């Protein structure tokens, strides 16, 4: 069950562009990979289509072959074929009215069963089938305010007309429309949007899911949005899986990449999951301002950091509870404002993509960045960076940045090991090149190992300030001093 935690929304989105000093020509690196991009995506798409053909849906929901006419459909069928309502599958004429009539009929025809949350009419597994057509619409397909659930909309394309309102979405699970209002605070439950291509025609967004429960968005290709490809606000458990989202149709290294705008997925609610999703253009890949969301298998190559883009932006300073695992950040990184409870692991950062902690009130707590791979172009880019332009991080607790591997980038960590060798009475190991937080060693441990036999000097840890550890002995000896430091949690007694 979701917690209704308070989410503080920042009124301003502060872009990365001004923070990252990147020469434009540093992006040339991306051009080295166009063929990799192209062939990868091409192959993936083909595999994906093959698999869909092989895996047939359960018999109960198996769509009839395209030759079936409405008269052949059982009168008790709850599959609504939109062409029987006059929708134009060629996309030449406006199908808005026909499609809204279908939706209205489906919502009027609830089963009266009580399978869902109280106050949400059970539509009995009805399916609005687009019959493989491509439909032009001039107004949003907004679900009735009376609410409903246990419904599938599937199997075709929707395209916004040239006069579609730019502040709306092609499909809206939003109870703001006319008519009877649902008595449930969540008007929609168990709505599935599946196997759809949604083309916003650069007029507004793709799908909005407002105050809904347990929504599935599965195998949708959403393009040409100017606002959000998918907006989720309130409610909980919208599962977005197996989807492709991009503002512009491109296979990467697009010459107009710097002009990409819009947000592919905007999560302004709790407890959602984004899994196995590719975001191929747009200024922000996934914007997260709700808690307890999980992102897995998300490949972002929406807009390179050097052009001002962000792959995943966590805009909920103070408590995020976001888990990002097995993602592929491709020339675009992760930004987290005052991260508290954040886990990033098993992900791949390519093309100098990095993680930025942005200080708002100076808090970073309960953060794991572990077991990731980073690859860059030898430009000295740190894998994890701090933006302290609004003030330094002052509350730093339970932060573990460790066990990441790098190639062509600079490793940063909160735990480090080092050594100093010399013949004398003072040894210093400087951890500044690796420790993430300046002047913060919470724990240090050392071993002094003399390289001549028979010497047993007295020695002590003298200084740990400025991320430098100094050990001194009472007599000069040739020795190696091994030091381990940690910026994470310590207990004091
Ligand atoms: C409502 O559903 C029944 C089958 O359960 C069907 O026979 C009837 O045509 C439907 N009515 C409308 C208005 O869709
Ligand atoms: C270490 O330095 C001392 C003089 O400070 C010298 O006597 C000694 O030979 C040196 N030991 C080695 C192993 O270099
Ligand atoms: C520790 O080293 C810093 C310089 O890094 C120096 O300012 C400080 O006085 C030293 N503290 C002690 C106790 O020696």
UniProtKB/TrEMBL annotation:
For the region Disordered, give the residue spans.
42-76
The UniProt keywords, alphabetically, are: Signal
The record's section on SUPFAM superfamilies has: Pectin lyase-like (SSF51126)
Q: Does Coiled coil appear among the keywords?
A: no
A Pfam family reported for this protein in Swiss-Prot or TrEMBL: Pect-lyase_RHGA_epim
The leader peptide range reads 1-23
Q: Where is the Rhamnogalacturonase A/B/Epimerase-like pectate lyase domain?
A: 82-306
Spell out the molecular function terms from Gene Ontology.
polygalacturonase activity
Presence of the UniProt keyword Heme in the record:
no
Highest taxon in the source lineage: Eukaryota
**Which stretches does UniProt call biased (Basic and acidic residues)?**
42-54
Q: What is this protein called?
A: Rhamnogalacturonase A/B/Epimerase-like pectate lyase domain-containing protein
UniProt source species? Aquilegia coerulea
């Amino acid at each position: 069950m979701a917690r209704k935690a308070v989410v503080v929304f920042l009124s301003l989105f502060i872009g990365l562009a001004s923070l990252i000093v990147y020469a434009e020509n540093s992006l040339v690196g991306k051009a080295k990979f166009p063929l990799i991009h192209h062939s990868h995506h091409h192959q993936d798409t083909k595999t994906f289509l093959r698999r869909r053909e092989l895996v047939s849906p359960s018999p109960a929901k198996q769509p009839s072959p395209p030759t079936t006419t409405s008269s052949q459909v059982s009168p008790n069928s709850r599959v609504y074929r939109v062409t029987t309502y006059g929708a134009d599958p060629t996309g030449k004429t406006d199908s808005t009215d026909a499609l809204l009539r279908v939706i209205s009929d489906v919502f009027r025809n609830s089963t009266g069963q009580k399978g869902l949350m109280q106050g949400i009419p059970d539509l009995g597994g009805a399916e609005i089938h687009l019959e493989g057509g491509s439909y032009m619409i001039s107004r949003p397909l907004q679900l009735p305010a009376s609410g409903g659930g246990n419904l599938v909309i599937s199997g075709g394309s929707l395209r916004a007309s040239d006069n579609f309102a730019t502040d709306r979405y092609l499909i809206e699970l939003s109870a703001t429309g006319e008519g009877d209002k649902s008595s449930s605070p969540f008007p929609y439950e168990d709505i599935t949007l599946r196997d759809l291509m949604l083309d916003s025609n650069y007029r507004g967004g793709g799908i909005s899911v407002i105050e809904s429960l347990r929504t599935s968005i599965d195998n949708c290709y959403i393009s040409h949005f100017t606002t959000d490809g998918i907006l989720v606000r309130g409610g909980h458990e919208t599962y977005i899986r197996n989807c492709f989202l991009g503002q512009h149709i491109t296979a990467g290294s697009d010459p107009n990449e710097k002009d990409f705008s819009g947000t592919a997925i905007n999560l302004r609610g709790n407890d959602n999951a984004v899994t196995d999703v590719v975001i191929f253009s747009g200024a922000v890949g996934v914007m997260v301002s709700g808690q307890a969301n999980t992102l897995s298998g998300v490949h972002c190559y929406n807009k390179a950091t050097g052009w001002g883009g962000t792959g995943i932006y966590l805009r909920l300073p103070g408590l995020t509870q976001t888990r990002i695992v097995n993602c592929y950040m491709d020339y675009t990184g992760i930004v987290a404002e005052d991260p508290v409870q954040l886990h990033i692991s098993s992900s791949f950062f390519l093309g100098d993509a990095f993680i930025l902690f942005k200080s708002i009130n100076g808090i970073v707590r309960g953060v794991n960045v572990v077991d990731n791979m980073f690859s860059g172009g030898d430009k000295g880019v740190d894998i994890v960076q701090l933006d302290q332009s609004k003030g330094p991080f002052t509350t730093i607790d339970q932060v573990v940045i460790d066990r990441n591997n790098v190639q062509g980038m600079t490793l940063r960590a909160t735990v480090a090991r080092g050594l100093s060798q010399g013949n004398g009475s003072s040894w210093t190991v400087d951890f500044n090149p690796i420790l993430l937080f300046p002047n913060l060693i919470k724990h240090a441990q050392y071993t002094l190992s003399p390289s001549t036999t028979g010497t047993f000097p007295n020695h002590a840890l003298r200084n740990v300030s400025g991320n430098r550890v100094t050990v001194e002995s009472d007599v000069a000896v040739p020795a190696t001093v091994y030091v381990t430091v940690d910026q994470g949690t310590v207990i004091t007694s």
